[in-house]
Amino acid sequence: LSPVHIVPEWYFLFAYAILRAIPNKVLGVVSLFASILVLVVFVLVNNYVSVMSKLNKFLVFVFIFVLVVLSWLGQCLVEDPFVFLSMVFSFLYFFVIFLLFLVYYFVGRVFM
Predict the structure, then answer these.
(1) How many other C-beta atoms lie within 10 A of the C-beta of residue 27?
(2) What is the 3-state secondary structure (H, E, C) of the chain?
(3) How far apart are CA 26 and CA 71, in angstroms?
(4) Tens digit of pLDDT for each residue in 54-92?
């Protein structure tokens, strides 16, 4: 468990919430780097394909909502409801990413 007094800068709060949500140390560090890498990959993905899909717009909205909630949970205390919510929203974070990449893949194949 993390000490109570440690809180990272605001731009890493979502990653800190994901790190605290996973009890295994190795998987926690892997998910920490994966969560930051996902944001880099979003910049590199072609966005002209995403304009054609209303599902993609909804998924991006859900992703931003989950990112904001994870950032809020990252600055909360290490207590029971916040740790459980961090687990739920960490799963949602990676699940929405998976769905977004599926939408990019299938919309790109249909319209290209």
Answers:
(1) 12
(2) CCCCCCCCCHHHHHHHHHHHHCCCHHHHHHHHHHHHHHHHHHHHCCCCCHHHCHHHHHHHHHHHHHHHHHHHHHCCCCCHHHHHHHHHHHHHHHHHHHHHHHHHHHHHHHHC
(3) 22
(4) 777 888 899 999 999 999 999 998 888 999 999 999 999
Q: Are 100 and 64 in contact (CB under 8 A)?
A: no
Which of residues 2 and 54 earns the better pLDDT score?
54
Show the tokens assigned to 53. 């899909």
Closest CA to 57 of 93, 99, 8, 109: 99
Could you tell me the CA-to-CA distances from 56 to 3, 29, 39, 96 in Å, in that order?
38, 29, 16, 10
Cα distances (Å, whole numbers) of residue 36 to 49, 91, 106, 108: 23, 15, 24, 24
